[in-house]
Amino acid sequence: MMGEVAATTGLALDGLRAMFGDRFSDRHAVREHHGRAETFFPAMLPDAVIYPHSTEEVAAAVRHCAAHQIPIIPYGVGTSLEGHFLALHGGVCIDLSQMNHLLRVSEEDLDCTVEPGVTRKQLNEELRHTGLFFPIDPGADATIGGMAATRASGTNAVRYGTMRQNVLGLTVVLPDGRIIHTGGRARKSSAGYDLTGLFVGSEGTLGIITEVTVRLYGQPEAISSGVCEFETLRGAVDTVIQTIQLGIPVARIELVDELQIRAVNQYSGTKLAERPTLFLEFHGTPAGVAEQSTQFGEIAAAQGGDGFRWTTNTEERTALWEARHKALYADMALRPGGTAISTDVCVPISRLCECITQTRAAVDASGLIGPIVGHVGDGNFHVVLVFDPESADEVAKVKALSEQIVELALAHGGTCTGEHGIGMGKKGYLIEEHGEAVDVMRAIKRAIDPAGIMNPGKVFDA
Amino acid sequence: MMGEVAATTGLALDGLRAMFGDRFSDRHAVREHHGRAETFFPAMLPDAVIYPHSTEEVAAAVRHCAAHQIPIIPYGVGTSLEGHFLALHGGVCIDLSQMNHLLRVSEEDLDCTVEPGVTRKQLNEELRHTGLFFPIDPGADATIGGMAATRASGTNAVRYGTMRQNVLGLTVVLPDGRIIHTGGRARKSSAGYDLTGLFVGSEGTLGIITEVTVRLYGQPEAISSGVCEFETLRGAVDTVIQTIQLGIPVARIELVDELQIRAVNQYSGTKLAERPTLFLEFHGTPAGVAEQSTQFGEIAAAQGGDGFRWTTNTEERTALWEARHKALYADMALRPGGTAISTDVCVPISRLCECITQTRAAVDASGLIGPIVGHVGDGNFHVVLVFDPESADEVAKVKALSEQIVELALAHGGTCTGEHGIGMGKKGYLIEEHGEAVDVMRAIKRAIDPAGIMNPGKVFDA
Predict the structure, then answer these.
(1) Nearest-CA distance from B268 to chain A in Å?
(2) Please, which of A423, B33, B48, B280 could form a disulfide with B26 given CB 3.0 to 4.6 Å?
(3) The complex's ipTM?
(4) How far does the CA of residue B366 sit from the closest CA of chain A (Å)?
């Protein structure tokens, strides 16, 4: 029955040990590495870890686990933020990091196929000579497989979309060991149910992704970056709305709030004005980015935007983005010895100003420290809550505040997670957000994984 | 059991008649109108047609049909090309054309929610004053619900994507009458399985779409259109590839082949050169479309493109597109008394030149008339086969050639349908294209529609 998996037996593990040799480990340090997330959740160790090198090896391992009713947890490089890879019911962690080859690039089709353990930075390094790049940038150097599994995105989703829009096809090992290919290499298709879309964002609960075909883009001829301070949050958000309405194809448009600027000033010794600030990037031809930047500047000026400056010089661009890039380190420094977790709500952009304003009030009322950064073109923003993990009182406050922030977003017609996924901690919100639709998700889960062995306890309870 | 539905009884229909009054009909003419498609397939009439006015009425009808094991066939305005709405097993046709209200527009969020019977032209008419538009253009004035159900696209998918990328959320009546809401109004979400993506393209086999939330775009400030003739097909296709590689955000890029130009010349008395020709459209700022057009012209010239001319004048733009817009009428005129059907393959663009060349050879060898038009930026092209529907010999030839064209596309890594869907005629190709993945589709179908009452016999056989 779903969710009821037999305790992993030593006998069953022995079979995997025989199959994988020194690519099998049940050493405590290895299990610990794969069973501890940078979250609230306590460590939950898998019984063993294997490192397959091919789709066929994954399928063989899955068949073995299925025969013994052993839970299976896929693992990339462990950058997930919602406890996705914690072994809630024990079982075998399938570490895909050694399946890290770029299998094929087509410069004419602007696509490539990778093994799931290829990281996004590795992919772009290997693509450099082609003039192409893969845009999705969730911050961490996550694997493409993991990014597909959590439907990741990041700072440039406003221009390039999320993994939902950029995965063209997948190879998946099903919970019974069968291998299927979803999607294809045609840019579009109306042939049957969109299984690619179903597996993207399924968080390892329906199968294991062993190959990913993704869209690529030509490296932009020119890039301009800019920073603009605003008198009010409303001015910043209205500038974003008008920029998008006008069809300016902004590549990145990030909000950094006053508290985040203060943190950066303290951390880096900069003297930025402590006001709501937008960080921007434009991609295009030299004339195109100049036009986009100028158009944006005019919109911003009408909304109280101050001192918008932009540049195509690489060093200056890098310097401009310092405040955004160092945000997390600066935040951690606000509370020496503290740790940080990030909320991840996303709301319709028309509700963003109200939602951020109410969220800021809730953070301040809690007494916690919580700078805000946002992928504001999508309505997605993160409150970085900095706290002492040893203080039960603070941990309780952080949990309560996190819940309050999600409730605010849902009340504004938003989602509990824009890009991190449900994992273990947001299962209740998924139901609040999607109601009876979650029953359909459960029915699909039961249809594809009737024994409930694929990453049990994630996304929803069986 | 799936696919085994009881014969519709008069008693069961009486229940619907009582519920829907004069919005229930079992008149032959009405049934005929809903059971005859412009395809090879013979007419297959539903036993009755109802015209609900709300999601709740749809749900009540579905519950009634489920209780009596009556097949349910959703219907928009009947523009589908693959027999999607034929009543293969009888049953009740749910005609959604009276659910045709624009429920909500948000200019700030660039989205709107419509009832499924709103047509794309109606939507754009109602949006005109907002400065926004809905781009997806499959040619016919289809309903938004039908376009979602078949994952439609059209000439400007190269810029704006297909229904897959443009549907943000749905209200769906499930086969047991439950009402669910998928997706949401946030621009992105990682909350749970992508049910929106699953229902988009499910061709009425999983439930009935009763509300659709779609993305909108700002009406472009400037539009330029152009035409360019090429010495060779290769030159035209390579121009398309380089245009996309360079990131020129072309809004439309359509291939019209020599035979199609000849047909247009004969039909309209024009004197266009009978060569492979690209028809283009660029959207942006005045400076932007000028730059895009100029850049394109330079690429085309290097590939043997001749006499590229472009204009932003509305009348001139309309005149330029005449040849493309009149293609179907011109084709029908090639064979007085003939009818036409359209193939719909889509291949990776790197394979497009070979695939079209082989397809042209196959058409010519068959002795049939088949001009080619293509949404070439996506690798999707249509052969318009013109034939005498009364000639059993010609019909047999058309069927054989259609199969051959699909086989060629699959051999090039393509799909049997870029935008029309599987419907009744391509079920075999779906299996050829997706193999065991179709078993997963079947498992999902069984999980969501265990009685098999939703549009039975479409997409795949149970």
Answers:
(1) 33
(2) B48
(3) 0.96
(4) 26
